[in-house]
Amino acid sequence: AARGLALGLNVPAIGVTGFEAMRGASAMNGHARQLVSLPGPRDGYYLQPFQGGQTMGPAHAAPNLDGVDWTAMGVTGATEIIGHNADLISGFLSGAPEERHGHVTSTLPTTELAATIGRIALAKLTRGAAIARPTPVYVRPADAAPAREKGPTILPC
Q1: To which H or E segment does residue 4 belong?
Q2: Exposed end of the chain (fewer CB within 10 Å): N or C?
Q3: Minimal CA–CA distance to 28: which of 96, 86, 89?
Q4: Is the dihedral of CA 138, 144, 145, 150 positive or negative?
Q5: Where are the beta strands (DSSP E) in the chain?
Q6: Closest by alpha carbon to 136, among 5, 8, 2, 15?
């Protein structure tokens, strides 16, 4: 809908992910590193690391926290954990007392959602870089399998 409106109004459409919105709405401590957690299916997690406000690679799907390679995701040293089950994730990450992981447990604040997305989109627009069209972010592959049987033949008109 947003892309259609943008085309019709001849204005840019700027995509903002749920990870960016959560990070922008909740990041309070100003840590250089942040890990945003969103709820995944079947009590799982969607995780995306940020550094200096920018993503540090793609988002990851984790069915549980046992198999997550935190170092590969860049979650080392002091990292602010934001979002879904932040307390649990912070406790799961053990480290020396000087490297304790700060955390903010929050949900996406619906009262400030539009303003937060607007601020993030404006920041992207004012950077001056080329803006890609908004596209969906697929964190994990689809659960559906292709059809085993060949579909019906469609006759030309």
Answers
A1: helix 2-9
A2: C
A3: 86
A4: negative
A5: 33-39, 45-51, 54-55, 60-62, 79-83, 103-104
A6: 15
Q: How far apart are CA 68 and CA 18, in angstroms?
A: 21
Mind listing the pLDDT tens digit for each residue in 95-136?
A: 544 455 666 666 666 778 888 888 888 888 888 777 777 878
One-letter amino acid for residue 57 of the chain: G
Bridge partner residues of 62 (DSSP) = 45
- Dist CA 150 CA 60 (whole Å): 34
Beta bridge mates, 83: 37
26 pLDDT band, cuts 50/70/90, is low
CA torsion sign for 77, 25, 18, 85 is positive
